[in-house]
Amino acid sequence: MLVWDDTATLVALLVAPMAAALVAATIGPRFPVFTSRLGSVAAGAGFLLAAALTAGAARGEEATAATGVFAVAADRLAVAALLLIFGVSTVAQEFAVRYLAGDPRAWWFTGGASLLTAASAVMVTATTLVGIAAGWTTAGIALCLLLGTYWHLPSARDGVRRAGLAFLIGDGALWVAVGLINVRTGTVDLADLPAARLEGALAPVVAVLIVVAALSRSAQLPFHRWLPATLAAPTPVSALLHAGVVNAGGILLIRLSPLPSPALAAGLLVVAGTTTMVYGAAVMLVKPDIKGALAYSTMAQMGFMILTCGLGLWAATVIHLVAHGFYKATLFLSSGSAIARHRRSTALPAAPQQTGGRRRFSLLTAAVLPLAALYAATELFPTWTHTHAAEQALLLFAWVTGAAATWGWLQRRPDIAGALTAGAVLLPAAVGYVALISAATTFLTPALPDTTAAPSAVWVTVIAAVLLLGALASLRWSPAAAALRRAVYTHALSAGTIHPTTAGALR
């Protein structure tokens, strides 16, 4: 009698997208509609299986399966990542059934998306260095195949070249790190790494190699140019890329966190994440096309994720990458509708610009209301501890997001009634946000390493971010800074321009 247990669930979850990719590669050109539906169903089944594993993980159970160096396990971190991977894959592939209907390359997308899903699932569940690196490299290959869906377009070939070069550097660094660890410690099992001796000059070398791999996959400086060069790919590919693949850098850093982490590696992550976050946000604000703006938005968001990794705020990293993944997939898949709405709105009379007292009222209200709502939520929520550094970092992120949303609303209703309406919406939203963050942190904590950031480091980062936002606001509204504003705009627009490449060199 066959008994279906958590191990069978985990194996089925990994096999389903692999089988869909194999079917697409063999009969896809002859049966494109069937192949597309099969890929969507396989991803949806994987999501349901991931939800079942999540329920088991919440009860303290952990599914495992092993075949040599390719052992896998579904702990709390893995199931959170699996929900993101299969959730985004399901939505993107179901969207592609209609989006690519009648397209002769629809089967190519299904095969590549299924292979990418399977490889990503292996990467987040593998419990050995070889398994992680194999899933990592296979996911990169699958993404390059997807980026080359319309290979006849020069812009598509350019995107594949740029991504391929960045991945070649990052994957090479990761495999070298795996080899060095195996030679020195004699093990590739993650569970043995804390007890293994990795000391001397080798520890910082391995740490920096892993940082290079993470930065390359997450499109961080100096590997940032490949991401905005991939916009020639079909919209479902962009959704998979921006909502899933770029998150792999954060997952890799968390999974390899048991290794010694010298200050040099953490410093590189903080510097690269902060610089990319500022650069991506600046270029995003000046990009005239919606997909280009979304690409640089992703770059900035990944900068925040890498920054939290550098500070050791692992719970904040996981919560942010999951939330950003679903959010960015929605934005890319709805970009066509957004353009249509924008065209309709441009035909309407423009709203009058705020001046003087109303602008000051809107700015002050947009800053204070979300802060007050979050403070009230943390006081009302009974289990909020105020002490976890990751929760504090996410509160800052929520405040900035709430301030931006409130400012946008007050552009339409710059009066007391508008402020009261915003407050009525912000308070329950803040309570729900605090409850969600607290529950997610409690769920993830057993599977995450201890937070390595000192409270002083977190608050220094918070204060620096607030000062930077204040400086940008002053530059945005100060009449005396008009010349500087034009110069910043010009430089940001130039920095965000991707020049075509040749097969032999990247410019």
TrEMBL record:
<keyword id="KW-0472">Membrane</keyword>
<keyword id="KW-1133">Transmembrane helix</keyword>
<dbReference type="Pfam" id="PF00361">
    <property type="entry name" value="Proton_antipo_M"/>
</dbReference>
<feature type="transmembrane region" description="Helical">
    <location>
        <begin position="77"/>
        <end position="97"/>
    </location>
</feature>
<feature type="transmembrane region" description="Helical">
    <location>
        <begin position="237"/>
        <end position="257"/>
    </location>
</feature>
<feature type="transmembrane region" description="Helical">
    <location>
        <begin position="393"/>
        <end position="410"/>
    </location>
</feature>
<dbReference type="GO" id="GO:0012505">
    <property type="term" value="C:endomembrane system"/>
</dbReference>
<feature type="transmembrane region" description="Helical">
    <location>
        <begin position="456"/>
        <end position="477"/>
    </location>
</feature>
<dbReference type="InterPro" id="IPR001750">
    <property type="entry name" value="ND/Mrp_TM"/>
</dbReference>
<feature type="transmembrane region" description="Helical">
    <location>
        <begin position="38"/>
        <end position="57"/>
    </location>
</feature>
<dbReference type="GO" id="GO:0008137">
    <property type="term" value="F:NADH dehydrogenase (ubiquinone) activity"/>
</dbReference>
<feature type="transmembrane region" description="Helical">
    <location>
        <begin position="361"/>
        <end position="381"/>
    </location>
</feature>
<protein>
    <submittedName>
        <fullName>NADH-quinone oxidoreductase subunit L</fullName>
        <ecNumber>1.6.5.11</ecNumber>
    </submittedName>
</protein>
<feature type="transmembrane region" description="Helical">
    <location>
        <begin position="165"/>
        <end position="183"/>
    </location>
</feature>
<keyword id="KW-0812">Transmembrane</keyword>
<feature type="transmembrane region" description="Helical">
    <location>
        <begin position="263"/>
        <end position="286"/>
    </location>
</feature>
<feature type="transmembrane region" description="Helical">
    <location>
        <begin position="106"/>
        <end position="126"/>
    </location>
</feature>
<feature type="domain" description="NADH:quinone oxidoreductase/Mrp antiporter transmembrane">
    <location>
        <begin position="127"/>
        <end position="346"/>
    </location>
</feature>
<feature type="transmembrane region" description="Helical">
    <location>
        <begin position="132"/>
        <end position="153"/>
    </location>
</feature>
<dbReference type="GO" id="GO:0003954">
    <property type="term" value="F:NADH dehydrogenase activity"/>
</dbReference>
<dbReference type="InterPro" id="IPR003945">
    <property type="entry name" value="NU5C-like"/>
</dbReference>
<dbReference type="GO" id="GO:0042773">
    <property type="term" value="P:ATP synthesis coupled electron transport"/>
</dbReference>
<feature type="transmembrane region" description="Helical">
    <location>
        <begin position="195"/>
        <end position="216"/>
    </location>
</feature>
<keyword id="KW-0560">Oxidoreductase</keyword>
<dbReference type="GO" id="GO:0016020">
    <property type="term" value="C:membrane"/>
</dbReference>
<feature type="transmembrane region" description="Helical">
    <location>
        <begin position="293"/>
        <end position="315"/>
    </location>
</feature>
<feature type="transmembrane region" description="Helical">
    <location>
        <begin position="6"/>
        <end position="26"/>
    </location>
</feature>
<dbReference type="GO" id="GO:0015990">
    <property type="term" value="P:electron transport coupled proton transport"/>
</dbReference>
<feature type="transmembrane region" description="Helical">
    <location>
        <begin position="422"/>
        <end position="444"/>
    </location>
</feature>
